[in-house]
């Protein structure tokens, strides 16, 4: 952000000044352990931990995470484009049902996008083995990929997003209700896509990086 405003300064200098001013990062990462269903349909791991894509809409990843607060639960099912880390669609429900992932698919199918031969990677969650979910993928020509059982690093890109989301939103704020949290969650995803810059994206947000590289996408 400093560089975008014309202040050319080394990141080590920023760290040193932060230390002198006793400014510390307050976030902390927590692992999310999702339910691993028994394998009933073989789906290969096509991604093979290759989280790089040359263009948008080549490799997508998805997963489900859970939030517990105010005596209630909320489940989030997002889809990330590995080209720029953008969350291109998501769904939320207070129960982890099949509708959670089918609604997630509907959120991206609403867009005028050709998904033929696009890889959509997930873990071994029971939802992704479901025949209805797999049928929806086939209808759009999407190629399904799954992590190996018990290998969370096979979907590390999405796990990383969950870590960032929870540390920057859930752990650092207090919420009076689940409705308030859900409202802030939607705002955070908008912020993450449009305003939160990344060094690996040349200091741009995911949407800015995509629009500068592929203006017509």
Give a brief rundown of this model:
The protein has 217 residues and is an alpha/beta fold. It has helices at residues 11-20, 98-109, 126-129, 131-140, 156-170, 178-194, 206-213; strands at 59-62, 65-69, 72-81, 86-93, 119-122, 143-146.
Task: Give an account of the 3D structure.
It is a single chain. The chain is an alpha/beta fold. It has a single domain (27-213), classed as Ribonuclease H-like superfamily/Ribonuclease H (Nucleotidyltransferase, domain 5), CATH 3.30.420. It is 35% helix and 16% strand. The protein has helices spanning 11-20, 98-109, 126-129, 131-140, 156-170, 178-194, 206-213; strands at residues 59-62, 65-69, 72-81, 86-93, 119-122, 143-146. α2 (98-109) runs parallel beside α4 (131-140).
Total number of strands: 6
Strand count, sense and closure of the main sheet? 6 strands, mixed
Q: Unreliable segments (pLDDT under 50, ≥5 consecutive)? A: 29-40
If classified by CATH, what would the architecture be?
A: 2-Layer Sandwich
Distance between the termini: 25 Å
Proportion of beta-strand residues: 15-25%
CATH class: Alpha Beta
Radius of gyration: 18 Å
List keywords for this structure.
alpha/beta; 217 residues; Nucleotidyltransferase, domain 5; 35% helix
Q: Any chance you could write out the topology, listing elements then pairs?
A:
Blueprint: H1 11-20, E1 59-62, E2 65-69, E3 72-81, E4 86-93, H2 98-109, E5 119-122, H3 126-129, H4 131-140, E6 143-146, H5 156-170, H6 178-194, H7 206-213
Parallel strand pairs: 1-5, 5-6
Antiparallel strand pairs: 1-3, 2-3, 3-4
Helix pairs in contact: 2-4
């Amino acid at each position: 952000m400093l560089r975008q405003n014309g202040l050319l300064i080394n990141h080590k200098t920023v760290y040193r000044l932060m230390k002198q001013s006793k400014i510390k990062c307050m976030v902390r990462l927590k692992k999310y352990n999702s339910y691993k269903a028994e394998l009933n349909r073989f789906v290969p791991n096509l991604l093979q931990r290759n989280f790089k894509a040359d263009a948008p809409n080549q490799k997508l990843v998805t997963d489900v995470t859970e939030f517990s607060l105010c005596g209630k639960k909320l489940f989030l099912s997002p889809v990330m484009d590995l080209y720029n880390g953008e969350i291109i669609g998501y769904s939320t429900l207070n129960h982890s049902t099949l509708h959670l992932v089918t609604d997630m698919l509907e959120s991206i199918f609403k867009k005028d996008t050709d998904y033929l031969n696009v890889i959509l990677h997930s873990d071994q969650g029971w939802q992704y083995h479901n025949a209805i979910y797999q049928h929806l993928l086939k209808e759009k020509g999407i190629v399904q990929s799954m992590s190996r059982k018990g290998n969370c690093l096979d979907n590390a890109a999405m796990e990383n997003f969950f870590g960032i989301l929870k540390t920057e939103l859930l752990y650092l704020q207090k919420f009076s209700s689940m409705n308030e949290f859900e409202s802030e969650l939607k705002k955070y995803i908008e912020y993450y896509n449009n305003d939160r810059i990344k060094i690996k994206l040349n200091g741009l947000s995911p949407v800015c990086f995509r629009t500068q590289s592929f203006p017509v996408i």
